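Lab notebook: predicted structure, single chain.

Context: the supervisor wants predicted structures on file for every construct in the current expression panel, including those that have not yet been purified. This is the next one on the list. No modifications to the sequence; it matches the entry in the shared construct table.
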Amino acid sequence: MRRIAVVLGSTSDLSQCLSGLQLLKEAVGRGEIELVGDEIRISSIHRATEDTLNHLYGLHESDQPPDVIITGAGMVAALSGVADSYLRHELRNTGS
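Prediction complete. Output recorded below exactly as produced.
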């Protein structure tokens, strides 16, 4: 079963994410996925940088880390890029 964590940058992002969150809820109900922590975390990378990064590191370093971290953010969408850059642990050279 896939383990999924969801982090949104602000409560104002909920309205744009509702249809995707509903799909996740349905998948949880069918037993197809597990929502890590049974919650959607709201944490601004702009206003609470250290707390947000600590949460992301905590997810990544836990005994049972999520297979996927879904991030959603507003117009700047910095949360997704920061999460990717801080959690990426291996870069691969795909060139010849």
